[in-house]
């Protein structure tokens, strides 16, 4: 059937991305980022996703959110949180030059903790800050750091005081979100948490979906299009 042929074509394209050519070959370019074969190969089974893959995927989510029927999404890049921690608001003030993050519905903050990826999600509609960790660790202090950032950003950019007491901060528990069952998939979990959240969908995937998600992401990044 035509559908089978399509899947075969996609599969062979994904395999070729992993197997043929040089590590420095550029396979995709958008959002001021270039993705090389070496970057794409982090999506192979058991690979550790790198900053470029995370940031490119966040770019795809933001792009999709401009379509009718999706919440308006803003995504910080993977270097934002560590920079915020080391320099406070003044060190990242320019990162939002010409952007009012408060005009969005959802803000995604992918976070790199040495050898582990996690995700923080600000929902401006609900006034919630939620922390998603596929290893089940709590991130209450991370939520607090980001709330403080929001207060300073609001003051600085809009001259509006946020009322911290109106906000709910919550680290998602292991019974609320799926958990990884290996030491490699945290980056894929972060991308898929962000994918489902940016569509206002309940998070219903499981660790069994990870091999499929990895291959699918290869195709999506190469084609700059979410399936």
TrEMBL record:
Signal peptide: none annotated. GO terms for cellular component: nucleus. Residues 33-197 form the Ubiquitin-like protease family profile domain. GO terms for molecular function: deSUMOylase activity. The keyword NAD does not apply. The keyword Protease applies. Gene3D superfamilies: Adenoviral Proteinase, Chain A. Keywords: Hydrolase, Protease, Thiol protease. It comes from the Eukaryota. One of its GO terms (biological process) is regulation of macromolecule metabolic process. Belongs to the peptidase C48 family. This is SENP2 protease. It comes from Picathartes gymnocephalus.
């Amino acid at each position: 059937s035509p559908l089978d042929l399509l899947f075969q074509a996609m599969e062979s394209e994904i395999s070729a991305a992993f197997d043929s050519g040089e590590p420095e070959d550029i396979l995709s370019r958008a959002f001021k980022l270039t993705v090389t074969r070496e970057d794409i190969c982090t999506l192979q089974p058991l690979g550790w996703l790198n900053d470029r893959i995370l940031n490119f995927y966040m770019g795809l989510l933001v792009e999709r959110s401009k379509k009718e029927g999706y919440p308006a999404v803003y995504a910080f890049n993977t270097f934002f949180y560590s920079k915020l921690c080391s320099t406070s608001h003044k060190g990242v003030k320019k990162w939002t030059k010409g952007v009012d993050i408060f005009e969005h519905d959802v803000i995604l903050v992918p976070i790199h903790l040495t050898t582990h990826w996690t995700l923080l999600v600000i929902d401006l509609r609900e006034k919630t800050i939620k922390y998603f960790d596929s290893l089940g660790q709590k991130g209450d202090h991370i939520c607090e750091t980001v709330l403080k950032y929001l207060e300073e950003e609001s003051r600085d950019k809009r001259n509006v005081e946020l009322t911290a007491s109106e906000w709910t901060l919550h680290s998602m528990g292991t019974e609320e979100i799926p958990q990884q069952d290996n030491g490699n998939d945290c980056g894929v979990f972060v991308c898929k948490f962000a994918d489902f959240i940016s569509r206002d969908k309940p998070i219903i995937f499981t660790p069994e979906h990870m091999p499929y998600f990895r291959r699918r992401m290869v195709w999506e990044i190469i084609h700059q299009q979410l399936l």
